[in-house]
Every structure is written in C-alpha cells, then in structure tokens.
Specification:
By secondary structure, this protein is mainly alpha-helical. 72% of the residues lie in helices and 9% in strands. The protein starts with a strand and ends with a strand.
Length: 258
C-alpha cells in the first residue's frame, strides 16, 4: 500500500498578488463605505456599527455553510468585516472616548488572544487550513479583530501623529514592502508574514479611504463618499471576474491506496 495525502480545498482563496490587490481595495471600500453611513447619512458610529455588524453576521451565515469556495461570497464577507471594523473602531476611539492609543492597544490584545485560542485549539493559524466550519469561526473572528485594529492604527497614524493621509499611507506601504522582502529573501514563518501583511493592508486602506473622502482642508481629496465607494465596489467586482480566484489547498489526513 502506498500512503498518499488527501488534498483538502480551503474555503478561502489562494494567496496571490490578485488576493492582495483586491484586499487593499476592499479595505479602502470599508473606510469610505463606513464613513458614508456614519457621517454622510448622519447615522452616527453606534447605529452604523449595528447595521454593519448585522450585515457581517448575514455574510458569515452564508459563507460558513457553503461547501466550497465562492469568490463573491468570500469577498462580500471581507468587505463586511472592513466596514464594521471602520465603524466599531470609530465608535470606540471617538464616541466612547478611549482614544486611538487605548483602542489600538485593546484591539491588539483581542487579536493576539483570538490567534492564541485558534492556535491552541487547532494547532495552526495558517489560512490554508480553513476548510471546516470550526476553523472558519476562528478565521472570521480573527479577521474582524484585525480589520478593526487596522482602522484604529490608520487613524492614529494619520491624525494623532500628524503624518496626514498621504504620508500615513506611505508608512504602511513601506511596512508591506518590508513584509514582502521578508517573504522573498528570508525564512521567516510564512504564516506570521501573512498575518502581518493582512493587518497592515487595513490601515493602508483606512488612510487611502480617508485620503479620498476627507475635506481638502484636512488633507484629503474631498471625493464624495458615495462616489468613491461605488468606484471601489465596481473595481472589486471587475477584478474578481477577471483575475483568477481559486480555493487554497492543504494536505488533509493521510489515506491508503490498496
């Protein structure tokens, strides 16, 4: 008998350049879309958070029971995490008065706790293992915390530290470049590098979104939040249709061939 490894398809896409391009657009849409509801519609951060958290729950309810990877369902869920992350971070930082430093610290601890529990329970936090409902729960909880943390970090860097949106975006772009260098030129854990890149794309999207829709007096380009969100949404849909979207894979349990 020859022992072979059964290949199990993941419920999330293969991590390629296309994945990261769409992810950055999705995080930017989360910023402009979240601001459109909370600010342009004048609903406030609390109501906006309730609305987007409800959308997130609906998206996850569609994603987790699915038997295989569906690009539009997956990316809809990602966008839902970015929008609710935007409004929840703004609610904590501004409405509750925790501040960017306090909010970022709390969210960082929550993210580390989510990853630690996932690692303790499943033995790995690699996205290639996201093939069961149990692991998906850990995956989406971790992503929700990372998206919310990313919003707080982006706002903290651009506003409190006085870098502005353009320089803030450059800082996080430089951070991503360092992660990419680590991937291509070192043996640093690929799982660690993935989560570092995943977290950094969120504040990059937050600063890019703010750059698009904030007033010129505040360092932005003063685009309509509705207009910017529509352009980003159309771009994401177009890229999903044009670029390859394949499920990731990982070796499952060993099986024997007679």
């Amino acid at each position: 008998m020859n022992d072979t490894q059964k290949i199990v398809l993941s419920k999330v896409p293969e991590v390629t350049l296309a994945f990261w391009v769409i992810k950055i657009l999705a995080t930017t849409l989360g910023e402009t879309g979240g601001d459109a509801v909370t600010m342009s519609m004048h609903l406030g951060y609390a109501i906006g958070s309730i609305i987007f958290f409800g959308i997130f729950i609906l998206a996850v309810a569609a994603q987790i029971p699915a038997k295989s990877f569906h690009p539009f369902v997956y990316w809809t869920t990602i966008v839902a995490t970015t929008t609710v992350g935007t409004t929840m971070a703004d609610f904590a930082d501004r409405s509750m008065g925790i501040g960017y430093a306090g909010g970022s610290s709390i969210l960082f601890l929550a993210l580390m706790a989510a990853l630690a529990v996932w690692r303790w329970s499943e033995g790995s936090v690699s996205v290639n293992t996201v093939a069961t409902p149990r692991v998906e729960v850990f995956y989406w909880a971790t992503i929700l915390f990372s998206q919310t943390l990313g919003t707080a970090l982006g706002d903290w860097m651009a506003d409190t530290n006085g870098l502005g949106y353009e320089r803030g975006a450059l800082v996080f772009t430089a951070g991503l470049a360092l992660v990419a260098a680590g991937y291509f030129f070192t043996n640093i854990s690929r799982v660690l590098l993935f989560w570092m890149a995943f977290i950094l794309t969120r504040p990059l999207g937050a600063t890019l979104g703010d750059l698009l829709d904030k007033p010129v007096a505040n360092g932005g380009l003063a685009f309509s939040r509705y207009y910017a969100s529509a352009i980003l949404a159309v771009s994401i849909v177009a890229l999903i249709l044009v670029l390859p979207q394949r499920a990731g894979e990982h070796p499952g349990a060993a099986v024997c061939d007679a």
